[in-house]
Amino acid sequence: MRVITVIVLLLVLFLGVVYGAFTATGSERIDMNGVIIGLCSDNSHEDSNTITSILVEGFQTGASQSQNVSIIINKNTTVYHKYGKNLVKANVNDLHPGQKIEIRFNGFMMNTYPPQVNATDIIILYDTK
Questions:
Q1: What is the domain-level CATH number for residue 39?
Q2: In a designed cystine with 100, which of 74, 104, 114, 125 is the match (CB 3.0 to 4.6 A)?
Q3: How high is the pLDDT of residue 25?
Q4: What is the DSSP string of 70-103?
Q5: Contact yes or no for 43/69 (Cβ under 8 A)
Q6: Which residues in 33-61 are b (16+ Cβ under 10 Å) and which e?
Q7: CA 28, 32, 33, 37 torsion: positive or negative?
Q8: pLDDT tens digits for 10-24?
Q9: Range(s) of the domain holding residue 83
Q10: What are the helix (H) ranges across the chain?
Q11: Rg, C-alpha atoms of the chain
């Protein structure tokens, strides 16, 4: 009888750990949130005005101090509008100074001034009040 009780307890603990792991990793992580304070474009002498990076003032996840970070945008970066819990695909040209955003990084932050990092996702936030 004791063996069955121990096995059931171990099974319940195992299921709790598995459930906790799925719950903790179920939503996409956000590496930084902040406000766009500047835009950088391609060579201004050409016809293209493609945004290649944005300067963001905000907080990295887990950080207690605000910092400015240059977010590099490349062909693999996806931009979204977020309305409540819904994400709608957007365009890089929808990014403007003053917007609140969330960013997911790709790789490590380069130790430059300001620090630079490649973005995989940029999510434009809207107040839903």
A1: 2.40.50.140
A2: 125
A3: 45
A4: EEE--TT-EEEEEETTEEEE--GGG--TT-EEEE
A5: no
A6: bbebeebeeeeeeeeeeebebbbbebebe
A7: negative
A8: 888 877 776 665 544
A9: 32-125
A10: 2-25
A11: 20
Q: Flag whether 54 is in a domain.
A: yes
Domain count, the chain: 1
Question: Would residue 43 count as lying in a domain?
Answer: yes
- Residue at token pair 């992580």: 29
- Counting DSSP H helices and E strands in the chain, the numbers are 1, 7
Q: Determine, yes or no, domain membership for 19.
A: no
Q: Measured in whole angstroms, how far is the alpha carbon of residue 89 from the centre of its chain? A: 15
Q: Cβ neighbours of residue 7 under 8 Å, at least 6 residues apart?
A: none
Sorted by sequence, the CB contacts under 8 Å of residue 108 that are 6+ apart come out as: 117
Asked whether residue 5 is assigned to any structural domain, the reply reads no
